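To the structural biology subgroup,

Please find below the input and predicted structure for Polyribonucleotide nucleotidyltransferase, which we are adding to the shared reference set this quarter. The sequence is reproduced verbatim from the submission form. If anyone notices a discrepancy with their own records, reply to this email rather than editing the shared folder directly, so we keep one authoritative version.
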Amino acid sequence: MYKKFEMELAGRTLRVDVDRVGKQANGAVLIHYGDTVVLSTATAAKEPREGIDFFPLSVEYNEKMYAVGKIPGGFNKREGKASENATLTCRVIDRPMRPLFPKDYRNDVTLENLVMSVDPECAPELTAMLGTAIAVSISDIPFDGPCATTQVGLVDGEFIFNPNSTQNLNSDLKLTVASTREKVIMIEAGANEVPEDKMLEAIFAAHEVNQKVIEFIDQIVAECGKPKSSYTSYAVPEDLMADIMAEYPMESMEEAVFTDDKQTRENNIFAMKEKLREKYADNEAWLGRLDDALYQYQKKTVRKMILKDHKRPDGRAINQIRPLAAEVDIIPRVHGSAMFTRGQTQICDVVTLAPLSEAQKVEGLDVNITTKRYIHHYNFPSYSVGETKVSRGPGRREIGHGALAERALLPVIPSEDVFPYAIRAVSETFESNGSTSMASTCASCMSLMAAGVPIKAPVAGISCGLVTGETDDDYVVLTDIQGLEDFFGDMDFKVAGTKEGITAIQMDIKIHGLTTDIIKEAIRRTREARVYILDEVMLKCIPAPRPEVNEYAPKILMMQVDPDKIGEIIGQKGKTINAIIDETGVKIDIDDDGKVSICGVDKAGIERAIEIIHSIVDPIEVGKTYVGKVVRIMPFGAFVELSPNKDGMIHISKLDSKRVAKVEDVVNIGDTVRVKVLDVDRMGKISLSLKDADK
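Predicted structure (tokenized):
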């Protein structure tokens, strides 16, 4: 007999079934939120994995199309590679969970979520986040939880907790906050220029809701939780660390790591490592832990200098940004390009414009999202960090960074009515030493402006770091962290936005949460840096979007027609529309609501296509003149094609002011003539005049 637990969460019932399914996993729950159902499991290997110096945690989020009553597309009719949404959900689940496992734990742990049913009122992603936290909490896997997660929307100025799919469409904020009992441990947000004060209010409101969920989880653990198992600690041996510090006192390590050049620092550490390898050549146990020991020693040194002396590895002040540079138009013939450099982080972004028909089609569990017209891709080659590695396509990190920059810029992308293009931005990482995702945001913004995309406001991004001491009030927040400060610090708090407000947040931490004061200071610091980057660097490089798209970009004009006329534009078996395309060289897309998009490189061709379509859909007006082609001649007159499906007749008496003996004396088949409409009878027959065309 399984156990069932229930609570009311944001007006809907959250139900957790324990010992109903998945009993061979270390922890498993079948979690219901409304009619959304997710199976969340936590499984750990019995023995540690040998030869690694990290915690091997894997997070999976498996979307099943049967959950929304669909059969997958494609030939195999089976779910394949994880969708982008699934990948991003895995990352959001991972971020609050990972810091709560022991740092020296080396057993493989897999957290899996199987989405089995989706209720549009209750997000499956949120359900999986809660299910994962509960599954680990009731398991015997070492874990310093629980944690809970809440989503927040902002509709008409009011916060909505765990909004449904309809509310999400109308929301100015999509915020996800995870908390422990005392602190906020993860923040992720996309927003329509939400002011900092409002964002802080939303974060702390979500934290309060999380406390109610944690109380609920505590009840489940008290009744169903397993005792936590012991494990083999892989902490660095104290005698090894002492011997290294004797060989290289802290002053030597400070001298090695405190430089503004990443390559110099790495060479210094490599030289130390080589000397120690020689020293420990006969001590296999110490030799196997050397890399981890040196890492911990560097970390201890950097943290001590930052926290106690406010000294950063490259000599900057704690609120100082590295040297900045910006350029546009660095790549010829593309539709838009820009390069943004911040210290040893350098991103080149290239924008491509295309017809709306080339927007990305999305297949997933969200029935409201079927296409994406703004796409941001991010690439991180190994050469950017001075390493050699075979490229095997984008991984979770690349997908996550691309999605963050996309989320940051999406609120300022113009609507289809204003700018009827599909837009793809690709950020190429040329060099990396901290926060390439925020550099991608800056480069992408400038590249969009260079391409002539009329964005609503320029967007910049920056990351803050953190080093904490023994107490909550012993900390230092660092503006614009470089790689070393990210590796050895406690936080990577990325914020992007305009001068008016925030458009995106992503917070990663390695400790058990942030206090209110730290969050407020990080938000304040990122705003100061963001405004500085916009005013002093980006807008000095390109002050506004260009008034027209690049010469190599396609030109697109839109027109609206009566939906009942769409069939006339297309013609039988596409004959009419294909004839227009052949004549003008344009590409034509027509929506079911009558929105016609005409795309081409030649503006004259676009204008001619619009003229032809107008001639098809617009009623023929008596007294108006038209240009048409003679398509048929009869003894009594000539037939002129006014549009692909509208012909009119010029009676022989209307060909000339003087008497005409033979039609061919005035016009022949293929001639282009200017005619005036004399009459349109109730049967639709059109009478034309050549001799009155100029009157």
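Summary notes: The chain has a mean pLDDT of 93. The chain has five domains: 3-148+195-224, 238-309, 334-540, 555-617, 625-689.

Regards,
Lab coordination
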